[in-house]
């Protein structure tokens, strides 16, 4: 019976995949000659805006940005006629490429068996052929932090660029962070606003689970402090890069008490901590600032966790962190929701941020937190040409239409299944011009 179930599930996954596989989008070839985008409004990503500007790039790197830039001889020149140019948006925390259909187990590879799995690498499970990737690129999202889930210590995430043949090609920064999920510090059903819950009975045994993880950290540090071992422990070995500060510790925590536990981890083990989720981060900005802890705000378009919070608190939190001088960025849970990241930044811009501050929250801030800011995040000389071109304001759902996008200088195909279906039924009903 079990064998029949496995065969049925695999067959179902194949049928769904065939039904979904409308478009064929191949990775773009390497940039062959210089490209210049002219007569554009250039949003650098660091707060600077250049009107009627030009940006040039060659061999995948930006070589010129400004209002008085002349195109090199033999270069490809695009006259954008007042369109807007932005750095590629970065989705810092997502299971994109690890999940294709949430209802089909055979297409889900985002979690591993067990509670403590520091040696798990999400990168090697990343599926570059996911059809969801193309929908993100169409909205200007060009890089993503691929994050494992499940258990307390879920494994390492990696930064990928979204135009690749395989995971090796996609890797932008491999294994940049280890992920720890703090159990919810409240009884089940006592609130949560639909937020991720890592403990089914968090009100009863959450602290016990935290202490178990703390003990594991202590044992791993003691193991790594020994000059030689009688036996190799792979889980302890996987913690070496964290304690060497070659990795960051991304702690998924929502409530004030959970964030305080995360700060304790940073202090006790002397590791670089980033809060992921951070619903209550606005309440403890002094603590975060004093300990130099950044925040990835998840799911900004949502209800507040606590019933006593203002109903629009998730919209206001980015501005409160900005005012407090906390490094933060915006993210979404899941994979398909990431396509709305720019519009959620636009919402934050109506609740206290400027438009350029909101743009930074999904570009350079995310790049700094992920450790790739020397490569991307702003449109500056020497950085990778990760660029999105929009007819209108990329943070405005009404006016944003991404017309071109470049990843490391390669002009990528912005086609996707939804666009093909739109054109198909336009043709069917005689609406296509």
Which terms would index this structure?
2 domains; Urease, subunit C, domain 1; globular; eight-stranded mixed β-sheet; alpha/beta; disordered N terminus; TIM Barrel
Structure description:
With 433 residues, this protein is α/β, with parallel strands linked by helices. The protein has two domains: 25-87 and 380-416, Urease, subunit C, domain 1 (Roll), CATH 2.30.40; 89-376, TIM Barrel. It is 29% helix and 22% strand. It has 13 helices and 16 strands. The strands form two sheets. Strands 1, 2, 3, 4, 5, 14, 15 and 16 form an eight-stranded mixed sheet that branches. An eight-stranded mixed sheet has the order 6-7-8-9-10-11-12-13, sandwiched between helices. A hairpin with a 6-residue loop joins strand 7 (141-146) and strand 8. The longest helix has 23 residues, at 202-224. It is globular. The model is unreliable at 1-22 and 189-200 (pLDDT under 50).
